[in-house]
Structure formats: C-alpha cells, structure tokens
Amino acid sequence: MAVAEVALSNDVGEGLDRLEMPVNSKPPLPRRVATVVLPKLAAIGFFLLVWQLVYMSGIKPDYVIPSPSDVWSSLVYYWQQGSVTEAIWTSIMRAAFGYVASVAIGTPLGLLMARVRIVRLALGSTISALQSLPSVAWVPLGLVVFGPNNTTIYFVVIMGAFPSIVNGMAHAVDQIPPVLLRAARTMGMRGLRLWWYAVIPAAMPGYVAGLRQAWSFSWRSLMAAELITRSADLGLGLGQLLDFGRELPNMSVVVMSILLILIVGIAVDSLIFNPLDRVVRERRGLIAEV
Amino acid sequence: MAVAIAPEAAVSSRDVAVQLADVTKVFGSGAQAVLAVEGLNLEIYRGELVCLLGASGCGKSTVLNLIAGLEHATRGQVVVPAASTCLMFQESALFPWLTVNGNVAMPLRLQRKRRGDRDAEVQRLLELVRLEKFGRHRPHQLSGGMRQRVALARALAQHSEVLLMDEPFGAVDAITRDLLHEDLLRVQDETGVTIVFVTHSLREATRLGDRIVVLSSRPGRVLEEFPIEGDRSPEANELAAADIVPRITDLLRSEIGRHGRS
C-alpha cells in the first residue's frame, strides 16, 4: 500500500513536471526563411521601382539622378577595377580597429562607472553628452592634432563609439534584478568573484545591446571621418570613394558609394550582432513568441 | 528501538545548531527607528525542521537574515555553525544564463571543487530533487515548482549545516506545493540538514515542522512554541494539526487584534 502510494506520488510529480514545461514549437526552416527574407526582398524591389520611376519622370536631369542601371554599370566597372573591394576592405578594417579599441576602452570604464559611485558622478553626464555629440565634430580637431592620416580616423571612430559601450555596460549592471545579486551573496560571493560569476554574466544582454549600438556609431563616425580626411598616402575607403564621386562629378559613383555604405553596415549588424543578441536573449528566455 | 529512531535520538540529545539569545534588531535611528525584533530567544537543534510562523510584521525575514549573517543584531547574540548557512527565497533566483547543471554546480565552483567531483555531485543532488533528466535545461524552460527544486539542490550544494527558507513555496499551486513538501521532508531525511522555514501558512507549518514557533508582530518575539509529535506521515500530521491549528489560530488572531486596538 505504502509502496503504491509512493509510486503514485512519483507519477504525479513526473506528470506535473512534464505538463508544466513550456511547449516550444518553432516553425519549419523554409517557412522561417520565407517569412524573414521575402518581406526584405519585396522592400528592396519596391525601392528600386520608385527609383526607376523618379528617374523616368525626368524631374532632375540624369547627371543628377542616375538610373539604377547606371549605378549598376558603375559598380561593375569599379568592381572589375578593384576599387570597390579595396574600399570595402579598407573601411571595414578601419572600423574594426576603431571598434575593438572602443570596446577595450569602454568596457572597463563602464564597469568602473557601475561600481564606483564617484566615477559615476564624475563621468556619467559627460559620457551621455559625448554620446549625443555628432562625431563629425571631432574631425577638425583630429586633423589639426594628428594630421590627415589613419590616427585621425581612429580618433573619430573611438570618440563616436566608446560612449555607447560605457553607457551600455553601466546601465546593464544597474538593471540586474536585485534577487540575483542577493542569491549570489548568500552563496558567499564577494568582491571579484561576485563580479566574475554574477554581475558580468547578468549584465550581458544590456552589454550586447551597447556593443551593437556602438557598432552603428563607429561605422557612421568612420564615414564622416573618411569623407573629410583625404590625403594621397591614405588608403581608399568607402567615404573617400563617395567624395571621389562628388569631385568627378559622377553621381552614379556617389549613389553606388552610399548604397555600399548601407549594405556593409547592415551586413555586419545582421551577420554578427543580431545573432549574438539573439543567442544571449534566447538562452535566458528573453525572446517573446510573436 | 533506540537504534531504529536514530534521527530522533540526535534531536533529543539537544545539539544546538543555531542560538539566538536576547536578540534585538532596530532598523534606522532616532524618530524613524523601527523595532523589528526585541528580546528574541530561540534555539534550533541539529537536524530539526523549525517553522517560524507569524502575522505580517513579525520580523520573520529579519530573523532569517540575522541567522544568515546578512543583518547584524543591534543587541544580543546570534550563534551559528562554522559551516555557515544557506538561504532560499520565494523566487528561485536561479542564474538565467546557466543551465540547471551550471546553477547547481555554482556553489561547488566557489568551493574550488575539481570538475569531475563537481559533475558527480551535481548529478547526485539533481537525483535528490528528481530533476536528473533536466540538467541541460535552462531555468526559463522549467515550471515554478521545478525551479524551486533546482534552487534547493543549489542550496544543498553549499554544504551548509543550516538551510534557511523564506516562504520558498509561496508562489506555487497547491498540488505542486504538496509535492514540494514531500520532497523537502525526504531531502532532510537523507541529508540531515537543519531547516528553518519561514511561512505564513499554518497548514504548511503543521505539515513540515517538527516544531512551530509563533512570533508576535512588531516587535517580533517568541509568543509560543508548539512541538509536533509523531512521525512525519500525512496521517500523523493531520492528527497533530487537529489539536494545534485552533490554538495557533486564536493566538494569531489575538495578536493581530492587539494591534487593531492600539
């Protein structure tokens, strides 16, 4: 009798565990691809259509607004010449270098700001102000101090991107649920171990959001810097390609450069930061089923 | 006979695990000072399960925090074992970035246990709370009751002599709570850990406790203690409850009424 009762209560326990588990159903891969990719393709198609119509309406002469096919032939021409790949590669390397430096500066500063009250009081509002300062404002200063070279470009990129990282980290630490830190303390975590095992991992979702925002800031800052900073021995980046088109003047090159800047920016975000963000949030159950 | 009831023998030897002697706790100072606990005397014996019961404002959680060392007594003395205490709350407070295995392993990592030993112990603890199949799940994939069992396994991984529980089953449904009670009693039988269990549910207190300590409200002090005789089967419990429940209910009512008059 007693054995039967224990067995029954085990069954009830297991049944309850199974019934109460959230059910997770993902739509099949082809459908997910279709729902994600199709709207994007449709939007691009619509954009090209409007562009073509504006071109055909003749509001502006065709040396001011080139047609999609003009831009396409420019792309093919400069691609074959090697300028497109060179410009993309140069810009990506510059942005990556400046971005990594921003992360290296911003992360410890953000942690320091979250942890030390004095640092927060001293730097908090300055960092937020820096974040809203358009980074193109740093270009003249950089040019005078460092000259028309890569150092100026890195300077502008770093000034544009690191405040997002600092703020991202500091706010992420602020938003950690207090109960997690209480649990960590009751486990005996103090000082560095508390930070390593609890605070930093708990802050990850907010930190990743900061990383992502910093990428878009560093890419924007880079274009501002490249557009203005020009010299013979400075490598050709997308910003310089854009300015080169303006000087020719060849609007197809200008529009091509703008599109390339957009495409690279979106590609890095959707290939690196979007998956990173998803992984971090999915693990914690922070993605709502839509 | 004496051999058969070894756990009871241990309790009856009156081996004190936690002692609070004339403890007073005041929050704040001056005009805003709040007297949360005053002249509280309580002894908790090794291997015992004591339920602290009281109306709102009786300082139940303060008493736990005092024992856990998260608060310090304003006056009086709190004696706890060297192997310290561990605490469980109403929220499971599991780390959402770790799997169930990772959560239970966390205290072991802090103890600098080797990986192999760690894995074996995590497995053993998860079996103890019937969750050995869920090691690779993440907390958000589990139900509330399952999360509390993971939290229990994690607390046990601290190897503390005393487990402090602050209304840990307050947020789960009745059937789940019954099962959690069975689990907790079984875990205590197997591990011999001393448990101080704070609750506002009289039913929960009579089901679990070897002894119920009723606290007064604002300031908290011990009103009366009710030992629960007999073994821990539900039947024996109901028998004990029939006698005790009306007495405690009256006690709590007059205690709350006292505050209504003043």
Could you please describe the fold and organization of this structure?
The complex is a heterodimer of chains A (290) and B (262). With 290 residues, chain A is mainly alpha-helical. Chain A has one domain: MetI-like fold (Orthogonal Bundle). Chain A has 11 helices and no strands. In chain A, helix 6 packs across helix 7 (150-174) and helix 9 (191-228) runs parallel beside helix 10. The model of chain A has no long low-confidence stretch (mean pLDDT 88). Chain B has 262 residues and is α/β, with parallel strands linked by helices. Chain B folds into 2 domains: 6-84 and 160-261, 3-Layer(aba) Sandwich (Rossmann fold), CATH 3.40.50.300; 94-159, no CATH class. Chain B is 41% helix and 23% strand. Chain B is built from 8 helices and 9 strands. Chain B has a 6-stranded mixed beta sheet with strand order 5-6-7-3-8-9, sandwiched between helices. A 3-stranded antiparallel beta sheet of chain B has the order 2-1-4, with helices on one face. In chain B, strand 8 (211-215) and strand 9 form a beta hairpin. At the A-B interface, helix 1, helix 8 and helix 9 of A face helix 3, helix 5 and helix 6 of B.
